[in-house]
Amino acid sequence: MRGITKNFGAVAALTDVNLEVSSSEIVAVVGDNGAGKSTLVKVLSGVHTPTSGSIVFAGDEVNISSPTDALNRGIATVFQDLALCDNLDVVQNLFLGQELKKLRLDEVSMEVRAWELMRQLSAKIPSVRIPIASLSGGQRQTVAIARSLLGDPKLIILDEPTAALGVAQTAEVLNLVERLREQGLGVIMISHNMADVMAVADRVVVLRLGRNNGEFAVKDTNSEEIIAAITGATDNVVSRRAGASTPAETR
Length: 251
Prior knowledge:
Blueprint: E1 2-8, E2 11-17, E3 25-30, H1 37-44, E4 52-57, E5 60-62, H2 67-73, E6 75-78, H3 90-94, H4 107-120, H5 137-148, E7 155-159, H6 167-182, E8 186-190, H7 194-200, E9 203-208, E10 211-217, H8 223-231
Parallel strand pairs: 3-8, 3-9, 6-7, 7-8
Antiparallel strand pairs: 1-2, 1-4, 4-5, 9-10
């Protein structure tokens, strides 16, 4: 994403924002409330059309005009509310709206595919026929991510994947995020939790008041430096792209 600007009337939600993610890379996008994180995600996922700027995906400049367009191009988004139906089981949630049919619903093929996805993610779910209402928060997040993999995406966007989860469930989801990277996917993770960011991200992009305010390679920075960029506590935030060196005293 290059020079992305998004205006809502007289309000500038994003101004000249840049974001890049590669295959097998986790990029965390962080910032305070109102920093523009959700708007940026919605531009990339086709919910909003940018006022100006360009998006290049897999080497080609693209125009993402709708969520369906984003999915067809290989960009999947798991929003914070997960959009799961509690009264349906795992298989029904995975294939809701995209059921496999021949003369009638192909329940066997859908169940087999559901188990394949669960094994691919090393998911700790007792059965794919268990209602979503019976699952923990971490298990629900797993189902939502598995659903996003049905279309074989190249990029997955996770909006606050560990919000409101306990310690064990958070660890389970973070392991899942790392498995996505191991499978060669690019991952954008929106998060407020600095411990989660430092645990799994390769790079951190900071947004402040709708603008870029720093880029850091996780191996060369610390949470205090990132928080300073988020809050604007420093007059000059040094952008550290992956591979940049950091003086030993700042580590």
